[in-house]
Amino acid sequence: xxxxxxxxxxxxxxxxxxxxxxxxxxxxxxxxxxxxxxxxxxxxxxxxxxxxxxxxxxxxxxxxxxxxxxxxxxxxxxxxxxxxxxxxxxxxxxxxxxxxx
Length: 101
Fold this sequence. Notes:
Layout: H1 2-15, E1 23-24, H2 25-31, H3 38-46, E2 57-58, H4 70-79, H5 92-95
Parallel strand pairs: 1-2
Helix pairs in contact: 1-3, 2-3
């Protein structure tokens, strides 16, 4: 049951990430008072419900996680105005969600 309730908490938080912003797996874990649960956040995202803005969750360095269709993810993020660095990673300084708004 822990994972189910944790997954629900992840989904509620991810729904709050506004267009044009991103959060890392570790950041979400930290915001849920589970700072060592970044991998569990990843598991939750693999099973995310339809309609969840999954593309707004990236790795801490701004790269798109392995196993995710990077082209689709990047296109969705670009359509939201997310900035990318020349090496293809999200510009985390410009686009990291601060947990507000």
